[in-house]
Design brief:
alpha+beta; two-stranded antiparallel ribbon; 4 strands; elongated
Length: about 80
């Protein structure tokens, strides 16, 4: 029996990825729990494709906490 949800592991203990800004090519740090980050060089907003259990699991709010749940489920406004 698991004592935690393995699907939320990267949200509770974020992992770091280095991405290249598609606008200017600068390296940008993007953590697994970031919805978006802004390039420090050109200001381009880079979105993280967070596909996680938070979108469908009925226990998600309890598992990741209210703040993280709201951050990951709020609608992006273009």
């Amino acid at each position: 029996m698991l004592d935690h949800c393995p699907g939320a592991a990267n949200l509770k203990t974020p992992t770091l990825a280095i991405k290249k800004c598609p606008q200017c090519g600068e390296e940008v740090e993007l953590f697994s729990n970031d919805v978006s980050v802004k390039c420090s060089t050109c200001g381009f907003v880079i979105y993280n494709d967070i596909a996680s259990c938070v979108q469908w699991c009925k226990h998600a709010r309890e598992c990741v906490g209210d703040e993280m749940y709201r951050k990951l489920t709020e609608k992006r406004v273009a």
